[in-house]
């Protein structure tokens, strides 16, 4: 918790959001267990979020995943207080966003956060460069510096040569690259991405995920990424929280969620997931002792099952040694075990 208070970590604590003209009057009923359906039927209020507690460490990608209407946008909009909570705290970089006065809030929004939107939200009468400098223009940064910064990110997202094009001359994928360049040009430590890739075709969407993951190795921002797609969540998220009806029903690493889905609802999603890309070899290895012979093929504990299977198949081997950073063997796994872990296990078979 201390870590999240420094820098650009985000702590959301005991957060409730009820929509309606008399929201505060119903918080206690919700705290005592009134359901979303009951609140709606009896009192005509909508339960947006219920008792959200999330720690997002600075410098990581935190994904919020859930179906339409589960509360994802409501949650992310609390982080820069586009929505006020009915009760609870939103601590960003040590400051409670809920307690900021209007001037502090404006400063915070301009300098600490940048947003990337699902519908790109580019200005149609501005070209790529002029869209990208927009945030710095508002901040009053000198023009030369605006352009220098913008060009750097335009190039970095793969749009060099397109500076003078207008949004309607670009494909959806390219427009979202502009959206990303614009957000990065702001140089805010926190990036808020609400279904930023959801409007893109599947292959373009995968490209954009790769662009984001590559960039993140360099920029190390605190990224809050919203999606309704579990594959996208598991690929991007250092940590993932799953929302349903305004409640977090599970949070953890991608592997935690795939190996130990908290309930049948999540297990049902997880069935469709490409397990080979998510599960790491150390989750299925057999521990080695001093007598276990070292196999000719070795890898680290965080290799995925896909990577491990490829290594073995390429080398024509059956047995893999998992080694630590010093090269000492910590476990072994054979090809058959890898392959059986890639297919969905029967209920109850999940391993930690
Ligand atoms: N301004 C609002 N007034 C009333 N209900 C709202 C409002 N905004 C969102 N909701 C309700 O809150 C719930 C969560 O919505 P939202 O956060 O937009 O979900 P998601 O982004 O996951 O699709 C839904 O039931 C939605 O109808
Ligand atoms: Mg939404």
- Under CATH, the topology of the largest domain is which? Rossmann fold
Q: If helices are DSSP runs of H or I spanning 4 or more residues, what is the number of helices?
A: 16
- SS class: alpha/beta
Low-confidence stretches: 1-6, 346-352
Q: What is the arithmetic mean of pLDDT?
A: 92
CATH class of the largest domain: Alpha Beta
Order of helices and strands: HEHHEEHEEHEHHHHEHEHEEHHHEEHEEH
Task: Give the biggest sheet.
Answer: 6 strands, mixed
The share of residues in extended strands comes to 15-25%
The CATH architecture of the largest domain comes to: 3-Layer(aba) Sandwich
Helix content: 25-40%
Work out the count of structural domains. Answer: 2
What integer value in Å does the Rg equal? 23 Å
Oligomer: single chain
CATH superfamily of the largest domain: P-loop containing nucleotide triphosphate hydrolases
| Large-scale geometry | globular
Distance between the termini: 25 Å
Instruction: Identify the bound ligands.
Output: adenosine-5'-diphosphate, magnesium ion
How many β strands by DSSP? 14
